[in-house]
């Protein structure tokens, strides 16, 4: 759903002190504008919140994934491009090289912020150095609208708080399943499963009674307390995943040496001759 009146907000403790310089609202607005423009040519272009979750998963991935590899998966290509009739994968659905460069500049700035936050040693979600996903409370925004404006969303299936972020995260996980295969170590495999389940839980709807406004103390209640607690667990799960793959390191491929027949063995080509007088000659 696209609505120019709904802007993303970040969950950040207002009274915390930090040296980290976070992206300003204007920068996220610019990212949204670029994505809106891409969506005018390719309607499956995701919203920023989805991109935010996707980015966190790629950063946590066991193997470093190159920008050209993950960006085409995230933004997709129009059907014509897949058929070879539109811009190639390097330009995707961007209107120009300048637009792509600007998107990547903002993307890399946010990437650096998220990576730095996930490397920080924090013990509270209230710590400004903690990873704070850029998420939206669409249900809360709509609930705060005048009744005549709310009517336009009456039949909309509005996402729950942080649901789109979690969907973006899991989309990345599902796009590179080999990088998220459970390790052989049972404790590590349990650690991985528990962390992923915490994020999967956020992909589900919030069916609890709205009790709080997650992004505003004065907003209309739109989210259950259970959902808010689950969101906190999901953030810690991202830290767990980052730490897990850092600890284990990239997967090491097992090299299997091809068995060579003995000189007097029958040749594997099926000729009926001995190997030394056939393929081994």
Explain what the structure shows.
It is a single chain. Helix content is 46%, strand content 1%. It is mostly helical and 281 residues long. The chain has a two-stranded antiparallel sheet. Helix 8 crosses helix 9 and helix 9 packs antiparallel against helix 10. It is elongated, with a radius of gyration of 24 Å.
Write a brief caption for the model:
With 281 residues, the chain is mainly alpha-helical. It has helices spanning 25-39, 48-60, 67-75, 79-82, 97-119, 138-143, 147-150, 163-175, 186-202, 225-248, and strands spanning 9-10, 134-135.
Q: How do the strands of the widest beta sheet line up side by side?
A: 1-2
Low-confidence parts: 1-18, 79-91
Task: Quickly count the helices.
Answer: 10
Question: What is the terminal-to-terminal distance?
Answer: 68 Å
Mean pLDDT: 83
Largest sheet: 2 strands, antiparallel
Dominant shape: elongated
Helix content: 40-55%
Strand-pairing-aware structural class: mainly alpha
- Rounded to the nearest angstrom, the radius of gyration is 24 Å
The topology string of helices and strands comes to EHHHHHEHHHHH
**Beta-strand residue percentage:** under 5%
Q: How many β-strand runs?
A: 2
Secondary structure blueprint with pairings:
Layout: E1 9-10, H1 25-39, H2 48-60, H3 67-75, H4 79-82, H5 97-119, E2 134-135, H6 138-143, H7 147-150, H8 163-175, H9 186-202, H10 225-248
Helix pairs in contact: 1-5, 2-8, 2-10, 8-9, 9-10
